[in-house]
Amino acid sequence: xxxxxxxxxxxxxxxxxxxxxxxxxxxxxxxxxxxxxxxxxxxxxxxxxxxxxxxxxxxxxxxxxxxxxxxxxxxxxxxxxxxxxxxxxxxxxxxxxxxxxxxxxxxxxxxxxxxxxxxxxxxxxxxxxxxxxxxxxxxxxxxxxxxxxxxxxxxxxxxxxxxxxxxxxxxxxxxxxxxxxxxxxxxxxxxxxxxxxxxxxxxxxxxxxxxxxxxxxxxxxxxxxxxxxxxxxxxxxxxxxxxxxxxxxxxxxxxxxxxxxxxxxxxxxxxxxxxxxxxxxxxxxxxxxxxxxxxxxxxxxxxxxxxxxxxxxxxxxxxxxxxxxxxxxxxxxxxxxxxxxxxxxxxxxxxxxxxxxxxxxxxxxxxxxxxxxxxxxxxxxxxxxxxxxxxxxxxxxxxxxxxxxxxxxxxxxxxxxxxxxxxxxxxxxxxxxxxxxxxxxxxxxxxxxxxxxxxxxxxxxxxxxxxxxxxxxxxxxxxxxxxxxxxxxxxxxxxxxxxxxxxxxxxxxxxxxxxxxxxxxxxxxxxxxxxxxxxxxxxxxxxxxxxxxxxxxxxxxxxxxxxxxxxxxxxxxxxxxxxxxxxxxxxxxxxxxxxxxxxxxxxxxxxxxxxxxxxxxxxxxxxxxxxxxxxxxxxxxxxxxxxxxxxxxxxxxxxxxxxxxxxxxxxxxxxxxxxxxxxxxxxxxxxxxxxxxxxxxxxxxxxxxxxxxxxxxxxxxxxxxxxxxxxxxxxxxxxxxxxxxxxxxxxxxxxxxxxxxxxxxxxxxxxxxxxxxxxxxxxxxxxxxxxxxxxxxxxxxxxxxxxxxxxxxxxxxxxxxxxxxxxxxxxxxxxxxxxxxxxxxxxxxxxxxxxxxxxxxxxxxxxxxxxxxxxxxxxxxxxxxxxxxxxxxxxxxxxxxxxxxxxxxxxxxxxxxxxxxxxxxxxxxxxxxxxxxxxxxxxxxxxxxxxxxxxxxxxxxxxxxxxxxxxxxxxxxxxxxxxxxxxxxxxxxxxxxxxxxxxxxxxxxxxxxxxxxxxxxxxxxxxxxxxxxxxxxxxxxxxxxxxxxxxxxxxxxxxxxxxxxxxxxxxxxxxxxxxxxxxxxxxxxxxxxxxxxxxxxxxxxxxxxxxxxxxxxxxxxxxxxxxxxxxxxxxxxxxxxxxxxxxxxxxxxxxxxxxxxxxxxxxxxxxxxxxxxxxxxxxxxxxxxxxxxxxxxxxxxxxxxxxxxxxxxxxxxxxxxxxxxxxxxxxxxxxxxxxxxxxxxxxxxxxxxxxxxxxxxxxxxxxxxxxxxxxxxxxxxxxxxxxxxxxxxxxxxxxxxxxxxxxxxxxxxxxxxxxxxxxxxxxxxxxxxxxxxxxxxxxxxxxxxxxxxxxxxxxxxxxxxxxxxxxxxxxxxxxxxxxxxxxxxxxxxxxxxxxxxxxxxxxxxxxxxxxxxxxxxxxxxxxxxxxxxxxxxxxxxxxxxxxxxxxxxxxxxxxxxxxxxxxxxxxxxxxxxxxxxxxxxxxxxxxxxxxxxxxxxxxxxxxxxxxxxxxxxxxxxxxxxxxxxxxxxxxxxxxxxxxxxxxxxxxxxxxxxxxxxxxxxxxxxxxxxxxxxxxxxxxxxxxxxxxxxxxxxxxxxxxxxxxxxxxxxxxxxxxxxxxxxxxxxxxxxxxxxxxxxxxxxxxxxxxxxxxxxxxxxxxxxxxxxxxxxxxxxxxxxxxxxxxxxxxxxxxxxxxxxxxxxxxxxxxxxxxxxxxxxxxxxxxxxxxxxxxxxxxxxxxxxxxxxxxxxxxxxxxxxxxxxxxxxxxxxxxxxxxxxxxxxxxxxxxxxxxxxxx
Length: 1795
Description:
1% of the residues lie in helices and 48% in strands. The strands form 33 sheets. A six-stranded mixed β-sheet has the order 97-98-106-104-100-102, with no helix packed on it.
């Protein structure tokens, strides 16, 4: 019962009564009132008592304990408890809206989020957390903020077991590890852009998240510990997901959506839902109770329904029991079964079950905004409710218990430490908190304390404890100590500081799951002694679970604990021991059946502990039938023995291919292991191979000509296609009767290979898949005879069977006298006697169904029947002229079911009759064939009419005959079907949008109707529309405006695809009641438009989902003069009028029809019921304004804006009026069914204040004046191009009324000196009357450019009413002033860039420098010189002698000896040369640019000796020289080797060369010396340095000097065929060319010198065999090498002193005596000789030789000599006209051979 007291004549509520006792006001323990003669208790003081409990003791930890007692009214009186002890604890206000809230009970955390895209984390003491250590409870000034999502936070959920937080926004975010970086998941585009709600299932860690578009995503952690998306639930859910919730005991899942449906999935997040609840407008929130799994559902309209765990509705109720307030809200259960409901009416309701109903036992009325969500921590401790209101995201926290804490410290120190216990305690609850870091053998005291939410405090008694004199340690577990279900944990017991203690202690290990707070498990180790260790094996652990373990020691009541350590048990993981099973090849058949292969598949348990069971094993995949598995392993454990090693179990898999080629499948094993893939999959592979298989084709033929041989081909095929065969022989079977054999002839010369037709010789190889053929002739002696002739094939198989094999081939011959059947279709006498023709039945629709009610359609309409007859004809008679017999007729082929034989004699249509029909000449047998197509998708439909006939009485059965075949053909037509389409938007999906209409009114003009096009989509038949109607529409809100009942949609060629249009209209009957609110856009209505039709195909009726929007009449309120005013919401805003005491102010209130949301005219009334001092003055007198608001405007033509009515509101405050003054005006509309009170608020005027605050945004040197009607800002000294800031602030200071800025802050006149930025002093900016938006401001910076003056002016206007006398009117004008200083600026030598350069002169190798003056010319600021730099066009001949980095004061200068010129010998190539450069000084200073610099030109002149000093006529300063007379001067300058040297690499000869610097001016560097030539192993090389050579790279040649180098020549066999004088020595140097400039850089030229070697003519080891050798002859082959490349023709000459005869021969020519004369000289000419050549000298000795040697000489023919004829010209002693190249003396042995 609420309590009231009277305050200044007004009754107000009070939480508790007070009485005055002994002069003091106190709160009584109880208060009563007398009612109807009886005293009734109306108030009872809330009291409680706290007890301090004896703690557990440890050496390092102290567990403080307390108990809450005498918590009045709690036990057994829940309703009374709620009436007395609920208190509002605090508000959480960081979020801008209260959309989402979640509680982590295990860690004591609260998370909130809303529209400002941020999640805030608080501890459960309701202090915000700053830092990642969320397990401690500390107070901080700002919240822990997780990384921001990119959109509004819609939902939050904690996974307490996994210490994770999920956030639903534009993505799904999952935070772990102290809320650091999140894992995020995108939403599929088809499912919208936002996640709407989410929830964790604590038992498994599964997370579900709803979306905007009817999909729910499922997430979990994989075996690697990473979050993953598993699947999506999207069927049959429809519409936006509003809420999801798990039942934590069972895992049942409830999903609510916008359509008011709740789907329940029992124990699964896969597959279809189990139940659906559909009794809601919109299911805004769902929640399961913990104990009995009851389901609570909150509806959009305020209704809450409770369902049992069988989903039977137990109760439903509304928050207030009245008409709903219409908005979202949340529901939440506590652990005891209490239900909290957060409502949009700003209340939180608590419900308790009383019998079969739920009663409201408490209502919280603390909030001012609609509630969006609610969460209860489950232990009756706190409730948090979030309010969904923009910019007011308050979360209200209500406590239901007492906050507990402890005070403690060492004895005698008081209580220096305080520890608050997480959460709130309830009556009788033991609460505790642990402290660490205690000293052993020390006495402590502590005290429990309780504080209620209303501030009441209770302290327990003080307890004293002493810590024991021992230290217990817990050993750090190794990985090997922990397996799947057990762990070995150690501990130790030591004395403190060596204290002497004795006794027997009991050791133990305590353990618990890491997620629990209580040490609920313990295993003893037995008796232990001090200073010893112990171990304990703890069993019964769960796999893959984290545990805390600690050691414990107990002695005579003293208990000590070691520190806590963490362990994680191993996983029970299932896996295969193989990656796959490869069976290889297996035959598809063998002599004894299929050729099977069996392998073992092995399962293993990989964690090292535990077992799992095999539930199911199977084969699945493409070729599963080729494999089989031993299923006896099902139900068995892996491993069989839990202690087994290896930890495996095997089973058999068999490969049994039924056909060839590669086979693949998978072994699939389902198991109970919690980890590892489930099911397990093992790929299995094998290849089926067919053994050698020999088959015969073409083994049956028919002859009709008696006594004439018919020849048929028999084909022998290897059909296995994997292995071939060797065909040894083909012969007639010797065992067949002679009578048969005599008629048959095996054509032994007809064996051919296929497909090329070559001869197939026996024995022969028949490859896999190949064939050969041969011929058999049959001369039948009986025209109606059947014989079988056997042929034997002898072969050996390559695969499958071994040894010799036989194939006995029966060849069947049929002697048949039957001739062609005569068939007469259409019975018109046109007989078809050949089978090549096709009979076409035309087109017909497929079969109709029994849904067709049209009586005009008969059976003949759906089939085609044609007439046929069999005709007797003498030409077709049998062999003996007798009538032929028709034995059987049937339909065969591709589509026999679409044709049927009608009205034919049963003797020939019944296969089992065994009879026939004779047809003699002139006879006919009529019958019919019917075409009834079953499909229209596989046209054309084809079959054959088969007729079996024989010509003689003794003919064989028809199965053995070749039938007469007539091709039948027809076309199936598609049955009739209709389709619908939204005519306004053909691409639109259902439901179709009909339009918008006013609830209870008529459709809007041109809106509210929808044409729906109905099309016959099968052009094969007409479709009749039998009727169309609207179903499932609420209250007939839709109707068919234009019906298509009876329309026939045609199918003729002219109207294929014909359609018709229907129109559906929305006519809502829904009428809103007073104060009923609708969301923007109105209420959605749905219905079904059904079309009943006679189509053969598709649904009947066709159902089209439609929907439309029902709108309501509404108005908007305008504050101001008629329609020019500002729109406002009278529910949240007041209509304000400004007037001072004794004055009158009038302002227009306008009510206008809201055409945006409303579409019908309405009556409106404005009435003033109070009239003083605020009154309504229509037409100048008090009264009421009433008029009709026309949706199309006042004139009803639609040409105006929506209509309005207005009333002038008058405010006339008196001198004693207290501001603000408020009263209400009533506005009614919509036929007076709706109304709104508008609060009129009369207020005093606003006051403007203008200032520049002294803060960090304003430069400290700025001074301001804002008084006495003047305003100015003085910036002081400001340097050009710099900036000085001032912030201008405009404030509203009256606190009574807001005012507006009516013009932007801007400059008066042109401005180049100041800059306005960050300007919020702009038009229509409102300065609020309170402190939420107290001011607007702008930054005004002084930024003078070069050469500017210092004044300016800014101004703005406003509509403030009351201006303080000392301040400014409107517009406000502010003058701006500053003193402009010149920027720091530097020049060189008193000049700007472009003046005369500084000139420096130096000879090469010398250095000169010069003084440069650095001048600051600005005169106001110092310049800071940062450095000097040079650039020049000669590569660095300028440098800085003395760099300068210092300050040049304002207007002063400094002289610097800086530029330095150092030309080198390579600087330029002329005696006098000028180099240009630039000296740059870089500087900084006030106003100077970041890259400020000044430059001056530098000119360097190189002074050299005159050009004549270079030497007369010398073009190169560096030359290389050898011997210019080498080779008699013929070859020119070079290095020349003259000796004849052996070609074996054993002799080295050398020659010198020199490099000379001829200019005598400069030194040069030799950078490289190489010898180049054509040989693979060059015989030349430059002697290296240190081997007697002074010239080798690198070396310097001084000016005017020279150095000699040495070339070595080492010929060997590899060079015997080379051209020696093609080599040269190359010297690379850095000498510059004459006339070059220094800027050209080094020339790096190369000089070269050729190398020459002697021409070599030597005997060789070659053998000449041109002719037989005579006894006195010697053949000497010669080789000549090294001829010059430009050598002329050459000839050779031989001579001796003994008169030997010489003959010159060529290799390859027999006896070619080229020249001979009496003098013994012989010669040979070679044209254009060059390089190498060979020849043979034949010398013949006389019987008495007088010499032991002869000479061979080689000459080069002189230019101009005639070499075209022999003999050569001789003169002066017979020497030919030539130049001797080489002379070679050949020594002879005594026998005349070569020595």
